[in-house]
Amino acid sequence: MTHHLSFRGVTVAAEPGQSVAAALIAAGITDWRTTGKGGRPRGLFCGIGVCFDCLITVDGIPDQRACLVAAADGMRLGDAEPGADVEPGADFEEAGRTGGEDVARA
Amino acid sequence: MSHVHDVAVVGAGPAGLAAAVEAAEAGLGVLLIDTAGQPGGQYWRHYDRIHARPEDRIGHHDWPVFTRLRTRLDELAAEGRIRYLPGHQVWLITRDAEGAFTLRVTAATSTSATAGRRSGDADPTTLAAHALILCAGGYDRQLPVPGWDLPGVLTAGGAQALLKGHRTPAGQRAVVAGTGPFLLPVATGLARAGVRVAAVIEANATVGWLRSPAGAVSAPGKGVEALRYAASMLRHRIPYRTRTVIREVLGDGRVEAVRVARVDGDGRPTGPDEEIAVDLVALGWGFTPSLELPLMLGAETAQDTDGSLVVAVDDSQRSSVDGLYVAGEATGVGGATLAVQEGRLSALAVAADRGHPADPARTRRLRAAVRRARRFAAAMHRTYPLPRAWPDWLTETTLVCRCEEVPYADLRRAHHDLGAEDARTLKMLARPGMGWCQGRVCGLATAGIAAWLGGRETGVDDLRPLATRSLAVPVPLGELAALAEETTPAEALDEGGRNGD
Amino acid sequence: MSVDLVVVGAGVVGAASAYFATLAGLRVVVVERGAIAGGTSSAGEGNVLVSDKEAGPELDLALYSQRIWREDLAEHGDLWEFESKGGLVVAASEQGVASLRALAVHQRRAGVEVRDVTRSELPDYEPHLAPQLAGGAFYPQDAQVQPMLVAAHLLRLARAGGAQVRTRTEVTGFLRAGDRVTGVRTSSGDITAGAVLNAAGTWAGGIADLAGVHVPVLPRRGFILVTQPLPARTIRHKVYAAEYVGDVASSDAALQTSPVVEGTAGGTVLIGASRERVGFDRSISVPAIGTLAAKAIALFPMLREVRAIRTYLGFRPYCPDHLPVIGADPRAPGLWHACGHEGAGIGLSAGTGKLISQALVGQRTDLDLTPFAPDRFPPAEEAPR
C-alpha cells in the first residue's frame, strides 16, 4: 500500500519503509527549508542523522530529521521554521508587530 | 533507574552487533542502544525489514555475516539476554561513585518516541551499565567547496543510504567525488539504480589498493573486490578521473553543474576548469569516526594514518578509561570486517575483565586478524590522503560551517585580525561548529583551516576541540528538566528562595 | 625587554585594561598562559547588567561601566554585538513583586532606570512568558555583548596602538627590587616593567601568591545551556527570576540555580545560571543542567520542546565579599590587580579597564577605588572558610 503525505499542499507518495526525505526526493522535491541567516534552501545532505540539514516539521512537531522519520500515511510535512510552532497558538508575526521592542525602547 | 546491566553497547553496526552478540554469548547481560530503527549501521543499511525485497541485498558486502548476527540478536533478545533499544540516542554519559556508567538517552525522532510508548515499555531516559563498549561508527568526511550547500549535493554515504535504505536515487545525472575506494560502490550503486554517473572524481592518483601489495595481500579478498568494482565501472561506462577535484558546485537554488580541474599531488589545480552538467553531487573524503561519547568520558586519543582523531586502545580494545571499551571506526577507520573482529574482541575483553575468561586461542586469532586488517587500512589511508593544500580551494564566500553559515572569510579574519591561533578560539570567535550539528560536518575542515592558517600540519590539538561535544546529541529541555526534581513554576520562581548569607 | 605595563591575562578584563592603558600612552605587553579569552571570558552569557545589583560599590562600578560601553566604546559596539536589549526581572508572587519594588527604590536612587511592570503588561515585553506570574521590573540599561569578541577586538585595537599580545606565555614568577615588583618571569623570558597588572581572573589568586600577597579569588562554577536556534525575537530581553539577585549575593557552596533566559544574535537561547563551589571540577552536573532546564521552562513553557544543543561551564572568579579587586597593591609596590569580578566581569570590564588606566598614569580616578582595595581581606590563614 502506498502512503500519501502532504507537503505545501502537494501530495507526496511514499512506499512503506521509505523515509520522509526519500519520499520528498522521489517526488522531485530537493529542498524543504531555508536557513536562518542567508535564506538558503536546504534539503538532504548526510542522509544518516548527523548533519541536521534536513530538518522538517512533521505533523506539527518542528525540527525533525527528515532522513530518520519513516513516512506514514496522512503525514503533514511543513516548512521547518526552526522552533516556530513550538507554542501552539502563538503567532510570531503578530507578536513581532505589537510586542516588546517599542515598549523597551520607548 | 532500576537495573545496572553488565555491559552497554552503543551502536548496532558491524562492531556493536558483534560486540553485543559476543558479550551475551559469554554470559553477560547486555544493553544494545542504536539510533536507527533496525540493526546494521551505515555499512549494512538496508530497506525496512518488514517491507524487504530480495533485491535489496544486492551490493551489500558480507551480507551473510550480517544476517547471522541479526538472527543471533533476535534470539538473544527474545531470551532476554540482550535488551535492544533501537531508535534512541545517548546524549550524556556520566559515572557514579562506584564506577557504573549512567547513560541518558533520547528518542531519535518523534515517531520513535511514540513507538517506544506503544511497545508498552515506558520510554527510557536513564540506563546504567557496569561496562561500556562504544561502537558509534562514523560518517563521511567532508571538505568544503564553493557551492557545496546547494540542494542536490549529498554526502557519498547519504546518496548510498538513500539508495540502500530507501530505494531512492537522489538524482538522474551524478558525479561522485572526493577520494577513496568508497566512491566506487556509491557510483556503481547509483548506476545500477539507473542514475547516469557522469564521472567519479578522485583527488588522488590511482586505484591504489592494487598498487599497495602489502596491504592487499594481507587482506584476502580485497584485491578481488577492487577488480569487481573496476569491471562494474566499465560496464556502466563510468569515467574514473584521478588527480581531479570539484572546484565549484554551480546552480541556482539547486545543483546544475560542477566545475572540475586536474590537480597536482598536493591538490593544487594544474589544468583548466571543465564543466559537467549534473543534478546530483555525492561527496566523500573517507570517513570520520563519531567520538563524542569516548571524549565525554575522557578517553585518550591519537591521530590515525588518515589524519583522523581516534580513540587509543590496547590489543583488547580497552581505552585509557577503566571499564570503557571502544570498537570499530572510533579506533581507526577500517571497514566492516575489522569492525566485527574488534567488536568480538572488545566483548571478550569485557567478559574476561568481569570474570568470564575467553578461550585464549580465539582471542589470539582475533588479535591477529585485527592486526592484519589494520595494516590493510593503513595502506588504504596512505593511498587516499586528503590533499594537503585543500584550503586553497576555498573562496572568501565558501561556507565552511553549513549550520551557522560561516564563510571562509570569517575564519580568516578571526585568525589574522583577532588572534585566533588555535581551533577552539577560531570556533568561539567565528562560530564554525556552533550550530545544530555541533561541528560533526565542519569539524575536520575547521581544524584543518586552523592548522593551515597557523602554518602547521593538522594535529590532535586542532582536532580535539571540534570533536568534543558537551551533549552528544540535541535533547529537548523538557527531558533535561525531568532529570531534576519535579519543580512547579511557583517553586522555581519563588523569590523566597533568596538564600543569601 | 622593558615596557610600562605587563598585563597578566588576555581575558576581557585584561583586554580592556590593555586597551585603555595603551590609549593613555603606556607601552603594554599582555601575557596569556593559554589563548585569548580562553578562560571565564569564554564561558559567560555576556551580561552587561545593572538590574541584578543592590545599591553599593558594585552597582556604582556597573553604572560607570555603562557609560564606558555606551560612550568611550560606542563606535565599536557592533564588533562585539553590543545589544541594549533591556532586562526583565519577574516574580511569581505579590510578595516577590513587593521586594522587587523595594529593591528598585534603592537602585533608582543610585541612578538606575527601572520601570515597574504589572502582571498584565508582562506579555507586551515577553509574549511567551508563563501566564501565572505576578509582575516584574524592566531595566532598559541592561545589555548584552559577545564577550570573546569584546576581548579579541579590544586586544586587536590595543595592538594597533602598539601593544603586544603574547599567548602561550605563562608567568612563572616576579622580578623584584626589594618589595617592589619590577617585572615578570615568564615561560619565554623575563619582561621588566614599571607596573604589572594581575588580570588573571579565576586564577588571579595564584598570580598573587607568586608575588607573595594574598588575594582570595575562588572559583564558583556555573553552567549554561544553549538551545537550538529559534526565530529572531522569540525571547527579546534578558529575562530572569527575582531570586537571581539573591543567588548572586549568596556565599553558599551548594548548588543554586535561578533561571536566566535570553536570546542571542545567533538565534540560540542561553539558559543560566547555576552557582556551586566545587573547585575546578569540569564534569557535567546532571542536577545542575536539569534544574536550569526545569526553571527555564517554568518561565517560558514553550521551551519544553526546544532542544538544548550544548552546555558549557565556567568558573566565576569570586571573592568572599563579592566585590572585585581593583587597584595598586600596597604590599608589593608595582603590582596592581583587576580581578575577582565574579559573574559580572564582562559588564564591569569596560569600567575596570578605564579606571585602572587612570590610576596607572596617576590621574584621579572617575570612581573611588577604595571599596575594591586589594589589601582589604584578612591574611590567608585567618580567611573565613
From TrEMBL, chain B:
Domain FAD/NAD(P)-binding: 5-343
Keywords: Oxidoreductase
GO molecular function: oxidoreductase activity
Coiled coil: none
Family matches, as InterPro entries: BFD-like_2Fe2S-bd_dom_sf, FAD/NAD-bd_sf, FAD/NAD-binding_dom, Metab_Enz_Cyan_OpOx_G3PDH, Opine_Oxase_asu/HCN_bsu
Pfam families: Pyr_redox_2
CDD domains the record matches: GlpA-like_Fer2_BFD-like
Lineage: superkingdom: Bacteria
PANTHER family named among the record's database cross-references: ANAEROBIC GLYCEROL-3-PHOSPHATE DEHYDROGENASE SUBUNIT B
Protein name per Swiss-Prot or TrEMBL: FAD-dependent oxidoreductase
UniProt source species: Micromonospora musae
From TrEMBL, chain C:
GO molecular function: oxidoreductase activity
Location of the FAD dependent oxidoreductase domain: 4-358
Database matches in Pfam families: DAO
Chain segments annotated as transmembrane: none
SUPFAM superfamilies named among the record's database cross-references: FAD-linked reductases, C-terminal domain, FAD/NAD(P)-binding domain
Keywords: Oxidoreductase
CC per GO annotation: cytoplasm
Identification of the protein by name: FAD-dependent oxidoreductase
Species of the source: Micromonospora musae
